[in-house]
Specification:
The chain is about 35% helix and about 20% strand.
C-alpha cells in the first residue's frame, strides 16, 4: 500500500482494547500441533497449523440495491492433521446461511458451525465441524451493507455520474469482511471466481480475466499464482480499458481514462527497469485501475492490477512514484510477503527502497532525492505523533490490536533507510545482486524478519566481514530513532526551493517567485508551501494566491498543503474551494489533516462538522471512522 497519512492511525477510532485474553486470536486458536513451521500471526483466528487453504472458488453476485455480495466461497484445504474435525476461519459480520463439507468435491453434506463472540479488532472465529476425511468447505453467505472491506458508491460519487461503483480493500485484515477465509498473509492460495453484476457494469479482479463480453453481466477470473488473502480484490463499475503496452493498460471510468493512460504511459519502462534490477515480473499483466476520488488510499498493490487514486493524475507525471511503489510490490510484498503484520516492514520498507530506485532510473535522481527528503520529513512527523512506543520501531507489537491501529510510515521510511544503509556499506551492485537473490529464493513465499536476518547474515554480511556490526543491525531493528550511522538523503532541488522561500519571506516580490517557480514540480510546490510560517501577513498571502492560483489548484497535493496554510492563517477566501475539495476527495492522506487542523479551534470545528455532514456519505468506511473519531 502506498503510505496513508500516519496520523490517521495514531488518532483513529480509539484503539479498541481487547484486554481479556479470551478475545485474542492467540487464545481462540486451538493448540498448535507442534509440527508446523508457520509463524504465529496474531491477527487471525484460523487454525492454519491444521488446515491450510490452497485454492478458493468464489461465486458471488453484486447487488447494488441491497449493497451486498452474496453467493458461495469454497475453500480447498490441505489437511495437516488426519483426525482433525474443526476448520476455524476468520469472518467479520458475515451473514452465513449454510456450510457444507466434502472430501471429493462431488458429494457435499451439511456441516454444523458456530461463531465465537466477535471482537472489534478481529471479528469472529467461524468454527465449522467437518468429517475426518473432509478437505473442502463451501459457505453460502452474504456481506452486510457495512462490510469494512467494501465501498459501495452511488452514481453521484463517480466521475460518470450514471452508474454505481463497488471496490474492495482487503489489506490488512478486511478480506474476512467479504469472504469467510483464513485471513493471514502466512497462507497463500490460488483462486477462481465468477462474479455476477448488473448487465451495464464491468467487474475487474486482481487475477487473470477470461475475456468476457461487456453486457453479459457475468465475469470469470483465475489467479494462478498463490497469493495471501489481503491481495484478493474486486472492482465493479462503468469501467473501460485502454492498453498502454503489450502487458500494461489502464482501467478507469470512460471520462477518466485518457488522462490516466497519458500520466501512466511510462509503466512499461518502469517494469523493464525493475526486471533488470530484481528479476522477472512474474504476474503476467500489469494494469492500473483508477478508482473514483473517494478511494481512501494512494494505491493498493493488488496483483496484476494496482488500484490507484485519481489524485495522482496531475498532468506532469510528478506523482507517478505511486506507480513505481505499487509496481515494486510485485517483488516485495506480493512475491515475497510478510508472514505476519508485525513483519510489515519487509513489504513496505523494501518497496519504498525499490520505488525510489525505479524513480531514479526512469525519472532521474532529482525526483528520487526529493521523494527521499519528503519521506524523511513524514518519518519525523510520524515518530513524533505515535503514542505507542513500539510503533516507532520496525516491528511493532500487535497482540490484540488490529494491524491498522499500528499503521504508520515508520516501516516504510525506516525500513528504506535500513536498506540504503546496507547499500552504502556493500556497494550498489553487490546489494542489488543480494536483493535479487532474496526475491528469487523466496518467490511466492511468506517470510518473517528472522528469515530475512538469517539470509542477510549468510549472503551479504559474511561477504565482507566487519562492514556492518551486529550492534548496528540490532539498532536498526529495535531503535525508536534514526540511527546516527544512517545514510541521510539530500536534495539540491529542495534546497533551492528553501532559498526561494526565504527570499520571498524577506520581502522579495511575488513576481520573482513566479519566475523561479515556473518549472516546479508537485514536490517543490509542496515543499515551498508546507514550510511557510503558519502566521503570514494577510495581504501577502492573498497576493501569493492571486498570482499563483493556489486556492484553485487542480493538483490535489498542492491544494492540500495550501488549504492547511489557509486554515492556520484563517484565510477564508480559500474555504469554499476547500469545502468542495473535502466533499469530492476521500483519500485520507489528503482530507484527514484538514479535519484535524480545523478541529483545533471552536469555529474551525463547527466548519469541519458542517462540511463533514455533506461529505461523509461519500467516504469509505475506514475514512468515515477516522473522521468520526476526530470530530466526536
Ligand atoms: Zn506499499
Amino acid at each position: 500500500m502506498r503510505p496513508v497519512a500516519y496520523f490517521y492511525r495514531s488518532i483513529a477510532v480509539g484503539p479498541i482494547l481487547c484486554v481479556m485474553l479470551a478475545c485474542s486470536p492467540k487464545a481462540a486458536t486451538p493448540p498448535v500441533s507442534g509440527s508446523s513451521q508457520l509463524p504465529r500471526d496474531m491477527s487471525t483466528y484460523a487454525n492454519i497449523d491444521i488446515f491450510i487453504t490452497k485454492h478458493l472458488v468464489l461465486d458471488l453476485t453484486a447487488d447494488f440495491d441491497s449493497r451486498t455480495l452474496h453467493g458461495t466461497a469454497e475453500l480447498r484445504l490441505e489437511r495437516r492433521d488426519p483426525s482433525a474435525t474443526e476448520v476455524v476461519l476468520d469472518s467479520r459480520d458475515l451473514d452465513v446461511r449454510k456450510i457444507e463439507a466434502s472430501s471429493d468435491g462431488a458429494a457435499w453434506a451439511d456441516a454444523t458451525y458456530r461463531f465465537d463472540p466477535a471482537t472489534p479488532a478481529f471479528g469472529s472465529a467461524l468454527r465449522v465441524t467437518v468429517p475426518p476425511d473432509a478437505d473442502r468447505v463451501r459457505i453460502t453467505y452474504a456481506t452486510p451493507p457495512s462490510a469494512k472491506g467494501l465501498q459501495w458508491l452511488t452514481p453521484a460519487q463517480t466521475s460518470g455520474k450514471k452508474q454505481p461503483f463497488l471496490f474492495s480493500q482487503a489489506q490488512a485484515i478486511q478480506a474476512r469482511s467479504f469472504i469467510p477465509i483464513q485471513d493471514t498473509p502466512a497462507v497463500r492460495m490460488t483462486y477462481d471466481a465468477t462474479i455476477r453484476v448488473p448487465k451495464e457494469l464491468v467487474a475487474v479482479m486482481a487475477a487473470e480475466m477470461t475475456p468476457g463480453e461487456k453486457g453479459s453481466g457475468v465475469f470469470h477470473f483465475h489467479m494462478p499464482q498463490p497469493i495471501p488473502s489481503y491481495l484478493i480484490a474486486i472492482a465493479i463499475g462503468d469501467l473501460a480499458f485502454q492498453p498502454m503496452s503489450e502487458r500494461t493498460g489502464v482501467w478507469a471510468e470512460p471520462a477518466a481514462i485518457a488522462a490516466a493512460a497519458k500520466e501512466f504511459e511510462d509503466t512499461e519502462q518502469m517494469i523493464k527497469t525493475t526486471e533488470a534490477l530484481y528479476g522477472p515480473y512474474r504476474w503476467g499483466r500489469y494494469d492500473l485501475l483508477v478508482l473514483p476520488p473517494s478511494f481512501p488510499f494512494g494505491g493498493m498493490e493488488n496483483p496484476r492490477v494496482t488500484f490507484a487514486t485519481p489524485t495522482v493524475i496531475v498532468g506532469d507525471k510528478s506523482l507517478v512514484a505511486l506507480v513505481a511503489h505499487e509496481l515494486a510490490h510485485s517483488w516485495s510484498g506480493n512475491l515475497v510477503t510478510n508472514a505476519t503484520w508485525a513483519d510489515f516492514w519487509l513489504n513496505e520498507g523494501f518497496t519504498t527502497y525499490l520505488e525510489r530506485r525505479i524513480v531514479e532510473a526512469v525519472y532521474g535522481k532529482k525526483l528520487s532525492d526529493m521523494e527521499r527528503i519528503i519521506g524523511l520529513r513524514d518519518l519525523g512527523q510520524a515518530r513524533a505523533d505515535l503514542t505507542v512506543a513500539g510503533d516507532r520501531t520496525l516491528q511493532p507489537t500487535l497482540a490484540d490490536r488490529d494491524p491498522d491501529d499500528a499503521y504508520s510510515v515508520v516501516p516504510y521510511e525506516l525500513g528504506a533507510l535500513f536498506l540504503s544503509f546496507l547499500e552504502e556499506r556493500f556497494g550498489r551492485d553487490t546489494f542489488d545482486r543480494f536483493l535479487r537473490r532474496w526475491f528469487d529464493e523466496h518467490a511466492f513465499q511468506s517470510v518473517t524478519t528472522a528469515q530475512f536476518l538469517e539470509f542477510l547474515s549468510k549472503h551479504l554480511l559474511s561477504t565482507k566481514p566487519g562492514a556492518v556490526t551486529d550492534q548496528e543491525i540490532q539498532e536498526w531493528l529495535h531503535t525508536e530513532s534514526i540511527p546516527s550511522f544512517a545514510v541521510m538523503p539530500k536534495s539540491d532541488a529542495l534546497e533551492k526551493v528553501e532559498r526561494a522561500r526565504d527570499a520571498w519571506l524577506r520581502g522579495e516580490s511575488v513576481e520573482e517567485l513566479v519566475k523561479t517557480s515556473s518549472a516546479w514540480s508537485t514536490q517543490e510546490w509542496v515543499h515551498f508551501i508546507d514550510a511557510l510560517p503558519r502566521k503570514l501577513d494577510g495581504d501577502r498571502l492573498s497576493t501569493l494566491d492571486r498570482r499563483l492560483k493556489l486556492t484553485d489548484s487542480p493538483n490535489a497535493e498542492i491544494a492540500h498543503v495550501w488549504f492547511r496554510l489557509a486554515i492556520a492563517n484563517r484565510y477564508t477566501a480559500a474555504f469554499p474551494a476547500m469545502e468542495r475539495y473535502m466533499i469530492r476527495i476521500g483519500r485520507r492522506k489528503l482530507i484527514v489533516p484538514l479535519y484535524r487542523d480545523l478541529a483545533t479551534t471552536t469555529e474551525g470545528k463547527a466548519l469541519a462538522t458542517r462540511i463533514y455532514g455533506k461529505a461523509r456519505e461519500g467516504y469509505h468506511p475506514v475514512a468515515q471512522s477516522t473522521v468520526d473519531g476526530l470530530l466526536k
